[in-house]
């Protein structure tokens, strides 16, 4: 009498692998959907700021959009106007007048960052954005001190004067 060895069908090995792959794909797609839903309002507001800058401030092209939230929320569009001048257009989130700042009339982002690095020697700069502080355009720089503490420095756009400094939060 011969003994026959029973082999499992191939499909029994494939089924758990297919189930695991489907679960992984569903988790990835769910994560992407949640991420998209979470960032949609900010993306929409940035697109609106760009559109308003083009319509009312004559912005021809843009390179970056900054977002700040001091006492009010502002979106600042860095770009070039129709006269080929480098400008910042500061757009308030809750309505109000746009402010157009010629970049040559104030400090650039790189100049502000260079000052912060020289004067404060931060561990890491987290963000540098233009905003409106006490009705004046200003750079708001967020950084970590050497001890890892959160710090803010508000620097006047036109002359580089430090308007506010909050250290070691």
TrEMBL record:
It comes from Secundilactobacillus malefermentans. The chain crosses the membrane at residues 12-35. It comes from the Bacteria. Pfam families: TseB. Residues 48-92 form the Cell wall elongation regulator TseB-like domain. This is Cell wall elongation regulator TseB-like domain-containing protein. InterPro entries: Cystatin_sf, TseB-like_dom. Keywords: Membrane, Transmembrane, Transmembrane helix.
């Amino acid at each position: 009498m011969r003994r026959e060895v029973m082999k499992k069908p191939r499909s029994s090995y494939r089924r758990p692998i297919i189930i695991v792959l489907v679960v992984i794909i569903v988790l990835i797609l769910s994560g992407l959907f949640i991420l998209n839903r979470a960032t949609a309002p900010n993306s929409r507001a940035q697109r609106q700021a760009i559109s308003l800058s083009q319509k009312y401030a004559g912005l021809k092209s843009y390179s970056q959009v900054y977002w700040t939230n001091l006492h009010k929320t502002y979106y600042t569009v860095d770009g070039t106007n129709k006269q080929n001048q480098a400008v910042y257009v500061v757009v308030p989130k809750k309505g109000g007048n746009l402010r157009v700042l010629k970049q040559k009339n104030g400090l650039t982002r790189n100049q502000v960052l260079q000052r912060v690095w020289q004067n404060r020697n931060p561990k890491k700069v987290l963000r540098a954005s233009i905003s409106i502080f006490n009705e004046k355009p200003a750079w708001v720089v967020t950084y970590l001190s050497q001890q890892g503490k959160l710090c803010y420095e508000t620097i006047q756009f036109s002359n580089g004067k430090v308007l506010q400094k909050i250290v070691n939060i």
